[in-house]
Amino acid sequence: xxxxxxxxxxxxxxxxxxxxxxxxxxxxxxxxxxxAHRAGREHLVMSAEVLRWxxxxxxxxxxxxxxxxxxxxxxVGGVRCGLVTGTxxxxxxxxxxxxxxxxxxxxxxxxxLAAAEQHLxxxxxxxxHSWLDEEPAALAFAAARGYEQGRAAHFSARDLxxxxxxxxxxPAGVELRPATDWADDPRPLFLVDxxxxxxxxxxxxxxxxxxxxxxxxxxxxxxxxxxxxxxxVVDGEPAALSLAQTDGVDRYWSAFTACxxxxxxxxxxxxxxxxxxxxxxxAGHRRAYTSNxxxxxxxLAINAWLGYERCAGERKGIKRLT
Length: 322
Known about the structure:
Largest sheet: 12 strands, mixed
Strand order of the largest sheet: 1-2-3-4-5-12-6-11-10-9-8-7
Helix content: 25-40%
Structural class: alpha+beta
CATH architecture of the largest domain: 3-Layer(aba) Sandwich
Mean pLDDT: 93
Number of domains: 2
Number of strands: 12
Shape: globular
Low-confidence stretches: 1-16
CATH class of the largest domain: Alpha Beta
CATH topology of the largest domain: Aminopeptidase
């Protein structure tokens, strides 16, 4: 949420002699930048279509921008950056990028980060956040460029061709409905998201999510599958939801599973996520992925019950800009 940059990573490399160009994103770069984002990271679900959409949106308070790196005329990586929105904390930005493995150690990652930092400094950013692959080379690369380690998170995967757990008994007055039922007015779903995200673990409190920003960043995403996004309704009121994004082929990403504070402790989140996975398997999706902060014990327990297994890790990198 709020442009905090879930999913992209910093690659590891050092400067060498090469023909390197850093420039703004063009629509024709999308396939190459998406390939760099996913390279070696089967748990990341990102399509070229989403990259084009992110860069075609009208200007917002996020000041979103994507830079790409060209080596000898070939696009080998990119970095997405902007202001963290949805929070009362000012002066925080994000920069998340990656380079194709075979083109690392040639200066592209360093140059991409420098371009992102210049963009963010001009916007008044004092603290820059980025997600890092939890492996020695990536962490060393970030440390050498002034990043300190912050929170840790786990990626988990689930084979959707294997049986899912049996659904718990549904309490009286509880329904499971697809998000398509709110196509004309999704504000009730926003209220679930905005209430729950206040308790999302993180360095920056997401305490000021606005409806219009939510529409632009979440509801209007081209990879949001509203038919697979399941809402738990209690006596007619949306209480919990499980947002589903897909790659349009066979991969499913759990973008956010949330429950309003007043409805917690009833198993409503578990019902929504299980039903979403069931529908995804029925639709032909074969692999499901999710990510959770290592301190988020309730959600980690639900994912373990659902059959997810840890497949990778990541660390928040934090840099103070001057």
